[in-house]
UniProtKB/TrEMBL annotation:
Keyword flag Kinase: no
Pfam families tied to this protein: GH3, GH3_C, GH3_M
Keywords (A to Z) from UniProt: Coiled coil
Protein's name according to its UniProt entry: GH3 auxin-responsive promoter family protein
InterPro entries for the chain: GH3, GH3_C, GH3_M
GO molecular function: acid-amino acid ligase activity
Coiled coil in keyword set: yes
Amino acid sequence: MAILGNIIKGVIDLKDTLSSEVNHQEAQKEVLKQLLTKAKDTQFGKHYKFDAILKSDDFQSNFSNLVPYFDYNKINDEWWYKLHEGETDVTWPNSPSYFALSSGTTGKTSKRIPVTDAMIEAIRQAGIKQVFALSNFDLPADFFEKEMMMLGSSTDLEERNNRLEGEISGISARNIPFWFRNYYKPGEDIAKIDDWDTRVQRIAERAKDWDIGALSGIPSWIELMLEKVIDYHKLEHIHQIWPNLQVYTSGGVAFGPYEKSFHALMGKPVTVIDTYLASEGYIATQVRPDTDAMQLNTDNGIYFEFVPFKPEYINEDGSLTQNAPSVTLQDVELEQDYVLILSTVSGAWRYIIGDTIEFTDIELAEIKITGRTKFFLNTVGSQLSVNKMDDAMKFLEEQFSTKIPEYTICAKRGDDGEFYHFWYLASEREDLNENDLSQALDTCLKDANKNYKVARSKALKGVKVKVVSPEVFYNWSGANKKKGGQVKMERVMGEDKFKDWEDFVNQS
């Protein structure tokens, strides 16, 4: 009998029973008030008169009117650079304990995003919320006695200017609660290994020693790890070595494109729970099984604003025009993509994280990630967002009986001088007809997107598809120093980056 599991499950169920429902709109007002109060004496707070904003009748509106939008380059060039020069109380009291390195999708140059002790605690509290939400998923008591595999970047952080730096997954794993360490795999020794391939090899070698009940990590890297374990032990599926695997906590990117390839590695059904942990904070987590939407963490260190995702508000580099209107949680609407704006306990203010979301339930503050501002393809009026592209990939998977876990696209002129969308799709099948794929993809996008259909009747000449091995995509990420980390594969590339990509493909 799972005695410990029953105790843990009982505590979780009791906590769920005693917890009162969060009023998300009121929680957000309180979070903003706390942020402004805490930071009013910082350099940033004095510059933007946080004290006066707090005394105003409508401090939410005054905050959005007086503080401009910041992307990473703007806030780093104007404020965060001071942290690296040893200044304190810049955008948050004192100094950050860590810097989260995030190369994102833009290249090899890492962003250095402050991570304060307050943010570490906010991430920890959001993680506890996720654990307590497991009571909604009807898991058996013995699940709570199994081990959890967390696959992220190395926990062996680098020291720079008396602060530790690393990816947010490594920072978070380094700060896991003491009571969780016995459950945590692959364990500190393996987690410290910097080279991802070596780390996964060690995991494969040790896999038979563990009783894994849950997985957590970026879908693409989790899949590669599972494939390595399966291959190393000559298995048909992962449940032959981890028979009690019941839950996969996905994060970093939308799980949809990986759904088919992930489940192909399983021997029986696994509950998939989506989470949204970024370098800037733990943004949302799925709290109930009857939806794959995630609930914003509205009462825990992050204040959210939302800008309608419309071409007139988006600059070519994915940043926002300063006149783009923002709304708070109380004014959002369904069936509308929004650019997500964060203000946090790490001293990010009205920060453009680069993701777009859509609300599925306003009262519950539940969202889905719909794409990236830089991945919005509007060449010659086609207006393709990532969620439309993801849907098209699912259509192709069904039509051609294949798995397409990765893809990328570039809009540019072909040899004939006309505009085309050039797609690269990842598939293990070598017998796929690229002309058939091109026609099916074109038809699917016309049916799903009226703007695309109009563009196809005018300046957009057509679609060209190339199929390559998924390994090419993973090696591309590895070559850009993102293997195993918080990778967001470039779904849309500019022409210069696309040329580098095609050169890489040809060399592969």
